[in-house]
Specification:
The chain has seven helices and no strands. The chain has 228 residues and is mainly alpha-helical.
Amino acid sequence: MDKQPHIVKSFENEIDTLNETIATMATACCDQMAAMKKALLNGDPHIADKVVTGDWYINDLQLKIEQSAVQILARRQPLAQDLRHILTAMKISHELERIGDYAANVAKQWALLSKTPSAGSMKMIIEMVDVAGDMLRESIDAFLNFNIQKAMDVWHQDDKIDAIYASLMLFVKSEMAGGGESIECGTQLISMARCCERTGDHITNIAEEIFYMATGDNFSSHDSYEGA
């Protein structure tokens, strides 16, 4: 679906700037997730610390997006699709801020692990991070290009994260049956995995918001949609 250009060029420029800031924020979240994955793979506490401290940048971008959006709403008083676009940008910035928080939380939990986790459990957590990273990049591309079909495809990809999460829960709980440090370590791994699972949920929220932005309908009515 193509978005019609605005007659007022200055308004178009403001929307473009808002979109660029969303893209910057999403890239920062992807970078956080990539750094978190690197910390998990390499066992590097310095990288994990950078993930935790780097969350401020994402928070700052969210504030910038909200301020810009409010100014556009007050100055332009947009209607219909333009209004939905600006409101969606604000909602996406909130989802991205939460995704950044979860990346920082995983890094914090990793630093608190009572012992080195099994290769199997770490492999599944990293798989969740990889899927979420792909979903996030595709969802922002869908937003920038007004691609409803891609947003719907992203929404369905969350099933992969949920499946890995369910397998990981069974795996970790079986390890915790050994008692001792396994229980504490397993609890921490479950917390990390939950953050990854919630990241997927926030990305599906982004996909739903894109669908609403483009169509004016709730995603629950997507069965009647025949394609982008």
